Amino acid sequence: MKEDSNPDVIVDFITGEPVPNMGAEANRQQVERYLIEVKGYRREDVIVDAPIDVEIDGQVYRSTVDLVIQIGGRPLMAVKCAAGSLGSREREIVSAARLYGTPPLPIAVVSDGSGATVLDAATGKKKGDGLAAIPYRDEAVILSQTDPPPPVAPDRLARERLVFRSYDSMNVNQRGRRR
């Protein structure tokens, strides 16, 4: 399908697949292009709509993380592509990074395609502002060779699951959100 044949559909930069042009999709395409063309990541380093399952009170909540960056099979960075205020999505992506894998991912990023906030997922503290603050691939390679962050404490894990589901369930008009 040609990108310009239907304004309601665009071609995903990473996967090459047609996707609905709704919500923050245009922002995600800008972030994907930036990661590949400027930051040096390879398409195979980026998981688009990475599945995430969160168990809460015996029920499984299924959703996706917009982008997960991995090096050598080790997930390192969770990215939320948002329209509007980045600050309102920081807590969601930090929770996603803490829940996505064992061990947790060390970096969480929220971006609107032209700006970004980079966060330390373990502490939730800001590491940098702007797209330039996103680590280059060579920095991620070095990070992939370091010790992973400690696991999230069991009592904290339950709260992180609730936080993620609460924020994520407010996402509307998003492709492939819940599986």
Any overview of this molecule?
The protein has helices at 25-37, 90-100, 137-144, 154-168, and strands spanning 9-11, 18-20, 46-56, 59-71, 74-81, 107-111, 116-120, 126-129. With 179 residues, it is α+β, with helices and mostly antiparallel strands. The strands form two sheets. A six-stranded mixed beta sheet has the order 3-4-5-6-7-8, with helices on both faces. The protein has a two-stranded antiparallel ribbon with strand order 1-2. Helix 2 packs across helix 4. The longest helix is centred in the last third of the chain and has 15 residues, at 154-168. It starts with 8 loop residues before the first strand and ends in an 11-residue tail after the last helix. The model is unreliable at 175-179 (pLDDT under 50).
List keywords for this structure.
single chain; alpha+beta; disordered C terminus
User: Could you tell me how far the N terminus lies from the C terminus, measured between alpha carbons in angstroms?
Assistant: 24 Å
Whole-number mean pLDDT: 89
Query: Which topology of the domain at 45-168 does CATH recognise?
Result: tt1808, chain A
Sheet with most strands: strand arrangement? 3-4-5-6-7-8
Q: What is the tally of helical segments?
A: 4
- Please state the second-level CATH architecture of the domain at 45-168: Alpha-Beta Complex
Radius of gyration equals 16 Å
Please tally the β strands and state the result. 8
Question: Secondary-structure element order, as H and E?
Answer: EEHEEEHEEEHH
